[in-house]
Amino acid sequence: MEQRATTHHVHKLSFILLILSLAFPSSSFELRPSVADSTFLHSNDTAISDFRVLNRRALFQCPDLNPYLQINVTTQGDLSDEQFITVNVSGVLAKYVTSDPSYLSCKNQKCQKYGNNGDCEVRTCAGSLSFHVVNIRTNIEFVFFAGGFSTPCILTKTDVPLKFSNPNSPLHGHLSSIDSTATSMRLTWVSGDKEPQQVQYGDGKSQTSEVTTFSAADMCNSIVVPSPAKDFGWHDPGYIHTAVMSGLQPSSTFNYKYGSDAVGWSAEIQFRTPPAGGSDELKFIVFGDMGKAPLDSSAEHYIQPGSISVIKGMTEEVENGNVDSIFHIGDISYATGFLVEWDYFLNLITPLASKVSYMTAIGNHERDYSDSGSWYTGPDSGGECGVPYETYFPMPTPAKDKPWYSIEQGSVHFTVISTEHDWTEKSEQYEWMKTDMASVDRSKTPWLVFTGHRPMYSSLGADDQFLETVEPLLLNNKVDLVLFGHVHNYERTCSIYNSECLAIPEKDKNGIDTYDNTNYSAPVQAIVGMAGFSLEKFPDDAPSWSLVRISEFGYVRAHATKDELKLEFVNSDTKNVDDSFIITKK
């Protein structure tokens, strides 16, 4: 039986539904009790709507069919890997349109039937909608339905499913660092083909890919109800290819392409390696909670409205040579069990992640699920339980489902943790954190940056146990800067420990807050979760340790030398620097 699954597009202007090639259709309008219960359970954490479970309802033909209704798609031949499709809807009866002016404007009218006196007896309306599609390796149909999401029925649909010209295309190549030498870079990409492919780079070098994938059986499930990832949100991910380009030089530019003669090749892409650990300078971008948003006017599952402007701003930074590497610290795609959305996210970040090292930390919306081994047991991942995240973004971690690591670039040592795994004393991760930070050679990398997803300090509240357990490690190892996401705004503290300011920055000659760490007191902590998800407002009575609070979309741009670490919060809508601060060592 042909397998199908609904996608994440419902257009705001009409009830056109974009459908991938309907899975396991039910025999009635009613949802199975387990699916209905799952929708309720996951609604607050994964943004499930009635639309997202349409593929678990029967889509019967509507009674009293309108003989004039048609859907036509304007496209020449099969679909490319990314394009906008114009969907033309015609023959909508004007009596329904005029009763709901917000439905269609009905500017394009046609008389379908004239009476004996020459008056129009049946008038219809037509309109066009634009949809952005990427190659998801399965056929696409457009369905026009009525009855709402609870009792849907089909009015009409496209006659023939739309096919992608090459479902096996190598797509969404993105880079990551594998160690601190910067002489090797990992490239990861997606294809519909399971045979090994190649990355060709530099002056005639090549590496063959290792190939992996995951299945619905790898997703987590509740004992009581199915998870989105395992049931109504599942979509085949194709095959994930990864290859390591070795023999590179730090802080250098190379070209590469990936694919094979059998499936085709990507365009040739220029990328830059980061500086080696211990070198003098590093320029990096850091943010959390970005996700994705539609490039058309669709109403999509879990839209992160700021992500488009943030991507545009960071792309300009990369193209201007201002970025050596990127750190995305949790809540990566917000697919939350609707697997096709990883393809849309990977497509969105390609202008960045294909050109510089794109390092990540795991967040609650990648990992958390009950009875899955995550520290927090909410259903935030929708049943993904870290499997798609770790497959798409292989980091230099010690093992599978142990997503913590450290890496050195330029004058900075980054300790990247998982707040979603056990961090309590005597846990494996706690012992790793203690050992890693104690081993840093500060003559080589004078700056120690500690980062993960959930914060220790936020005006909106944080986990006191996390703070009490891990914060002493930061002070004992003289961590300079702590960066977290999870809370969807930007907030900066004083040099803080135990909820008290041990030092306050002073203004330099340019009026920039400057923390002097020559005589170390405590880390500066900042929340940088303002990269996409809907912003959170601050309370009126913020604590005294909170020095700067900004609820705007953007990203943080950082520049580290041996003596100075400067960070700037860039507002992605205005391109202005809304906050900047410096940490110095003399």
TrEMBL record:
A GO CC term attached to the entry: extracellular region
Residue span, Purple acid phosphatase N-terminal domain: 170-273
Entry's localization field: Secreted
Limits of the Purple acid phosphatase Fn3-like domain: 82-166
Cofactor: Zn(2+); Fe cation
Top EC group: hydrolase
Taxonomic superkingdom: Eukaryota
Domain Purple acid phosphatase C-terminal: 522-580
EC number of this enzyme: 3.1.3.2
Signal peptide as annotated in the record: 1-28
Major localisation: secreted
InterPro entries: Calcineurin-like_PHP, Fn3_PAP, Metallo-depent_PP-like, MPP_PAP, PAPs_C, PAPs_N, Purple_acid_Pase-like_N
UniProt keywords, alphabetically: Glycoprotein, Hydrolase, Iron, Secreted, Signal, Zinc
Gene Ontology molecular function: acid phosphatase activity; metal ion binding
Catalytic reaction list: a phosphate monoester + H2O = an alcohol + phosphate
Sequence ranges assigned to domain Calcineurin-like phosphoesterase in this UniProt record: 282-490
Family, as annotated: Belongs to the metallophosphoesterase superfamily. Purple acid phosphatase family.
Quaternary structure (record): Homodimer.
Protein's name in the database: Purple acid phosphatase
